[in-house]
Amino acid sequence: MQINAGDTAWIIVASALVLLMTPGLAFFYGGMVRSKNVLGMLAQNYVTMGVVSVLWVLGVYSLAFNGKNSLIGNFHQFGLAHMGEQATGFALTIPPLVFVAFQLMFAIITPALITGGIADRMKFGAWIIFSGVWLILVYAPIAHWVFSPSGWLFKKGAEDFAGGTVVHANAGAAALAVILVLGKRHGWPKERMRPHNVPFVLLGAGLLWFGWFGFNAGSALAANNLSAYAFVNTNTATAAALLGWLIVEKLRDGHATTLGAASGAVAGLVAITPACGFVSPLGSIAIGLAAGVVCALAVGLKNIFKFDDALDVVGVHLVGGVLGALLIGFFGTKAINGANGLFYHGGWHLLGIQTICVLAAVIYSFVATYIIAFVMDKTIGLRISQEQEYQGMDLSLHSETAYETASGGLR
Amino acid sequence: MKLITAIIKPYKIDEVKEALQAFGIAGMTVSEASGFGRQRGHTEVYRGAEYKIDLIPKLRLEVIVDDKDASAVIDTIVKAANSGSIGDGKVWSIPVEEIVRVRTGERGPDAI
What we know:
The complex is a heterodimer.
Chain A: H1 5-30, H2 38-65, H3 96-114, H4 124-147, H5 152-156, H6 164-182, H7 198-217, H8 225-253, H9 258-272, H10 281-298, H11 301-305, H12 313-331, H13 349-379, H14 386-391, H15 393-398
Chain B: E1 2-8, H1 13-23, E2 29-35, E3 42-46, E4 49-53, E5 56-65, H2 67-81, E6 89-95
Antiparallel strand pairs in B: 1-5, 1-6, 2-5, 3-4
């Protein structure tokens, strides 16, 4: 295929937009932890940008996207060699290296999402090793299955426009596995751990929303009508989810909260991610509204089942990602792209494929992650000491303090 | 001499300070404090989970005064800090044995 300058320019910009999502996520999460752990959270997210960017060049890109094997790629493009060749099976109008950069940003944010579940209690070094091992053993295979035209789920016709399964359901299932190995934070749930800076959460959500246009509209891998649909559907679903979450809060708790607005927006972004290039704008309202309502209720699961998903990665990303992927089976329409779902006379076929895709990704991610975390916990250990946890990650792991406490002057 | 300590609502600090300045006190110290009295705490809700906040923010102000002024200063603080609603705080005084001005070494009431 001929390289198209417009497509290339858009995907380069989209890549930069997606990179910004990880610092955005760091603030989204960082505001929700207690002030003694905010740097620990930011550090985990930033170091993930470091680890994944280097490993991506050193073979992980190739492992995810090269070769005709349906389960896993190869090391043909190790070190980003053979960049004259397209990723196997793609016919793109952008240079292969631009595709590498764009996909890298997805690979960065996926492990970064896990940090919200395991907040406040994992060793920094253990996180660095975990994120690298997880990228190779969990992210690369699932990305290959779903995103690569050689992958077995892609060949089945599974639809995941921008990573609802590969990124969100995957990260959510992985977070649950690590949470179960790590255990609860000391004092949880009796001791309530309040967000220390809700404005940071809103700032982070805003950066995520902004960057997500690159994530979703960029996944058209071109600047065309489909990318425009992805863009509009993304914004519409996010808006509907924000409203849906607030309605649940108002009815259930009596107050609509700012944290709820941010959470609802992110739930909508998650759920529309797999669907944004397959559904109509009206479908995106339905998906967004469903995500806002369902995720607002799903974040209560941790209190019922007593798993310390600190910042609700399971309730928002696992539930939202699975919901979005399955709703394609209802709202998918050929008029936009892909196959018809149940509501467009496509029958149950697409929903069946989506279910297989979600189950495969979630089960593999959970089991493989559990094994990785379990082995690491038994060998190098995953958890900081109780004293370090009490002192906070900022001081005990990084020898830093986020804020000068204003004991001298009045605020 | 008496040390008068008052726990007040943070938003009342300016009124109390102005009233005390008008009275003519020589100085005061203000610090942030948190705690509960009969008002107890309040409830916050994050992502549907209720958080019971037992300790709520207050300001603690401390003034050292001559014995003869103590009662009037307490009245001044109480009047200025009163909003009529629960949680307005407390004022108390205790005797002070000695006081020294660091710069000059003056002692007793002269150092106030």
